User: What shape does this take?
Amino acid sequence: MDLYSLTPFDLMLAASLVVALGVVQIILGLGLFRTLAFNSVRMVLQLLLVGVILKAVFDAASLPWVMLIVMVMLGLAGYEVIARQKRPIRGWHGYGIGLAAMSATALIVAMLALTMVIDVDPWYAPQYSIPLLGMILGNTMTGIGLALNNLTQTAWQSRGELEARLILGHSVRDATAELRSDSMRAGLIPTLNMLAAAGVISLPGMMTGQILAGTPPIEAVKYQILIIFLITAATGFGSLVAVQLGARRLFDDRDRLRLDRLRSGR
Assistant: This one.
């Protein structure tokens, strides 16, 4: 079966639903019309730009170009991790923790999949490496952002309890054990929901796209299972690394709680 090619009119019909939503928001006075309109236009422009760039990268199939795309994706994801937090860690440390956690997990998981599971030749083939990393990185970014936000917010709210434990002689590790555990759990909630809902409540995007493109459903399912396992591993380990680094940054070398290293709430 050939893939149905969407026309501009098809996209306009879909966009009309968003316009209708905007009209309803105006009528109800929700105050979200401008945000909805701006983000919708931004989404279209971003995706069109990405489409043009990816076409050029796919045609070139060059490792330097693929690495450049990967570095840009990682850099932007690191910024988004900070942007999702109410009380992020100040300075480059906050950005660096998110970036390090994603680089140490999403990149490694993607590399293992490309070289040992999918086994494409060359391993950096852009039509495989970029979409694969994008799916893993997007979910890992969300998990790390949620985990760090929970870590810093809870530390701020529970500062009295944390300091009391330190005064009583607890080590930083013991004093923050529950905090780190709760933060890890917060980072994994979207992934756990995805595992529970996949195939029963929702059909994941990659599988749906492959089926629409004519791939046999069983093959599409196998690829989707692979992707979900990769996302789960990367998000879990990424949240773990981020929480450990973030918790350590909340204390100085003398094991004193340093909430002055957090930005004020937004």
